[in-house]
TrEMBL record:
InterPro entries (alphabetical): DNA-dir_RNA_pol_su2 (IPR015712), DNA-dir_RNAP_su2_dom (IPR007120), DNA-dir_RNAP_su2_hyb_sf (IPR037033), RNA_pol_Rpb2_4 (IPR007646), RNA_pol_Rpb2_5 (IPR007647), RNA_pol_Rpb2_7 (IPR007641), RNA_pol_RPB2_OB-fold (IPR014724), RNAP_Rpo2 (IPR019969)
A Pfam family of this chain: RNA_pol_Rpb2_7
Residues in DNA-directed RNA polymerase subunit 2 hybrid-binding domain copies: 135-505
Listed transmembrane segments: none
EC numbers on record: 2.7.7.6
Any one of the GO BP annotations: DNA-templated transcription
Similarity comment: Belongs to the RNA polymerase beta chain family.
Name of the protein described by the UniProt record: DNA-directed RNA polymerase
Domain RNA polymerase Rpb2: start-end pairs: 5-66, 87-120, 507-595
Length: 602
């Protein structure tokens, strides 16, 4: 049975012995007679050989193993250190191979040299190569669950930081810049490689304990004194854009302060921050619905209601406003040109964000939670030396998540802070727990990292020792001020007459079954009535045939279009969404009939 051979999914021929062909291919590649990035894969199920050369594949280097021994020896490593040979020399000698995910299916890769057997074909350069960039920044991650590491990776992407040093020149959407970013005390080998990626938080003093229940369910308690000293303070930037559009016929928008005779004029108070050119001035403090750029547009459709009068065409106010429930200082204004050649105005708002209840925080190990309470410094527990923690973390977050790496980071952070040095927390190769314990003991502390603390409410000593140390904390982009939303009356959709959806459109809040049960349990029946009657409508129904009656506003009468009845017409209250469904059924040729029954009928 012959085996088909494909190069980049193109059929090129057959071979009789596929395994021998693959081995010879690799031998020739090792001698440099084939490109080093050419990969081969034998799919036994389909009985085909795939040779991959196309660009964009993910490749990674592995050490070649023969007869259970790696070709890379200690002699090679010493020569690399001295600079006598280079990485490229190892590739030329066939000691290092670049493989893609397809070729790796045919390989047997060992993680450690001591794991090698006669069956192994390759060896990892280091166990650390199993990590991605962000996961490799998590200290002592070999002590954590893998699922928790994935969550920790996501939180690092969401942290407030200085993401670029030229952020003040950029107009990016929804950006938060941390005021005082710090480098972590406990770090991994990747820190020097990805130095900027690791400056995304602050080193804080943490106490692992409960405090009046305010840090239950993963919440944390923050010291108000620390917040007043600037911990996790940040600036939130929001971008606005407006374009002066040119229309057919030579008409175009005007960037100016609209006059009172303009259609949809918003009132003089809304334009108070605009300068003569119709653009807001820098460092103006604006609130929701304040005008940032005054714009007047010509009427697009002369037949549109309100835009065609006996006095001639009426221009329309299309000014750019601050979005609903947003505010801030005008940080920067840039006037430029769009790709289509129109005038483009970019405005960036800046809002100072001080940590508050509901803001989300996390450590690099994936232990995330919101602020449950901000406590006065006088009400924070203190240690025997008078130290008050910045954050109180609940101990109940550890057993189920098994983030032992977090506990080791707290211990290492304490040693590093006391000795004024950085701690190597590289997985498998970092400083050992025993060494950290001995060093902490030599500094006059308990080797376990625990300390005696005192109850701020009674002044008495806690009966148990509290685990206290330093840890690298991150403030995430999810802030209560951006999420908080409420609505009473507001806009509705044209089709269903129900409230619009989303905070940006002043939308209503979705009221589900569980919320309904909560209010019913409280006896808030009036509020329930309001919540479920946002699109109420009165529908006339014929009692004879059950058809929807017709309201004739010209002759001021209501009659049934089927049986002509005018006396037996009942008014039924229902939702407009249901009425819309009935009308859609009628349009499909399905005629629904209503059975009207009075409440007090026997």
């Amino acid at each position: 049975m012959v085996t088909e051979v494909y190069i980049d999914s193109i059929f090129v021929g057959y071979v009789e012995d596929p395994k021998d062909f693959v081995n010879k291919f690799k031998e020739i590649r090792a001698k440099g007679q084939l490109p080093k990035f050419a990969n081969i894969y034998f799919n036994e199920e389909k009985n085909i050989i795939e040779i991959n050369l196309r660009k964009g594949r993910i490749l990674r280097p592995l050490i070649v193993v023969k007869n259970g021994k790696p070709l890379l020896t200690q002699e090679h490593i010493e020569k690399l250190r001295k600079g006598e040979i280079k990485w490229s020399d190892l590739e030329k000698e066939g000691i290092i191979e670049w493989v893609d995910p397809a070729e790796e299916e045919n390989l047997y890769v060992a993680l450690y040299p001591e794991d090698l057997t006669e069956e192994h074909t390759h060896l990892e350069l280091s166990p650390l190569t199993i990590f991605g960039i962000l996961t490799s920044l998590v200290p002592y991650s070999n002590h954590n669950q893998s699922a928790r590491l994935n969550r920790g990776m996501r939180t690092q992407k969401q942290a407030h930081s200085v993401y670029l040093t030229n952020f003040w020149q950029r107009f990016d959407t929804d950006i938060s810049i941390l005021y005082y970013p710090q480098e972590p005390i406990v770090r991994t080998f990747s820190h020097n490689l990805f130095r900027n990626a690791d400056r995304i938080g602050q080193n804080v003093i943490i106490a692992v304990m409960t405090q009046e229940g305010y840090n239950m369910e993963d919440a944390i308690i923050i010291n108000r004194g620390s917040i007043e000293r600037g911990i996790f303070r940040s600036s939130y930037f929001r971008k606005y854009e407006v374009e002066r559009i040119k229309y057919p016929g030579g008409l175009q928008d005007e960037i100016t302060i609209p006059s009172q005779d303009v259609y949809l004029y918003k009132g003089a108070d809304k334009y108070k921050y605009l300068e003569e050119d119709g653009i807001v001035h820098v460092e103006a403090y604006v609130d929701e619905y304040d005008v940032l750029v005054g714009k007047v547009s010509p009427p697009k459709f002369l037949s549109a209601f309100g835009e065609y009068t006996t006095a001639g065409t009426v221009k329309k106010d299309t000014s750019m406003l601050v979005r609903f429930e947003e505010k801030g200082y005008v940080d920067s204004v840039v006037i430029t040109e769009s790709p289509s050649g129109n005038m483009l105005i970019k405005i960036r708002l800046r809002d100072i964000r001080i940590p508050e209840i509901g803001d989300k925080f996390s450590v690099r190990h994936g232990q995330k939670g919101v602020v449950g309470m901000i406590v006065d410094e006088s009400d924070m527990p203190w240690t025997a030396s008078g130290l008050k923690p910045d954050i109180i973390f609940s101990p109940f977050g550890i057993p189920a998540r098994l983030t032992i790496g977090l506990l080791l980071e707290i211990l290492g952070g304490k040693v590093g802070a006391l000795n004024g040095r950085f701690i190597d927390g590289t997985p498998w190769f970092g400083e050992k727990e025993e060494d950290l314990r001995k060093e902490l003991l030599s500094l006059g502390f308990m080797e376990s990292g625990e300390e005696t603390m005192y109850n701020p409410l009674t002044g008495e000593e806690f009966k148990v020792k509290i685990y206290v140390g330093s840890v690298y904390y991150l403030r995430l982009k999810y802030m209560a001020e951006n999420k908080l939303h409420a609505r009473a009356l507001g806009p509705v959709t044209l089709l269903t007459k129900q409230p619009t959806e989303g905070k940006s459109r002043e939308g209503g809040l979705r009221w589900g079954e569980m919320e309904n049960e909560v209010l019913a349990a409280h006896g808030a029946s009036l509020l329930l009535r309001e919540a479920f009657s946002s699109d109420d409508v009165i529908v006339p129904i014929c009692e004879n045939c059950g058809s929807i009656a017709v309201e004739d506003d010209i002759h001021h009468k209501i009659y049934c279009p089927v049986c002509g009845e005018t006396d037996k017409i009942a008014s039924i209250k229902t939702s407009y969404a249901f009425l819309l469904l009935v009308r859609e059924l009628i349009s499909l040729g399905i005629w629904p009939r209503f059975k009207v029954k009075y409440k007090f009928e026997k």
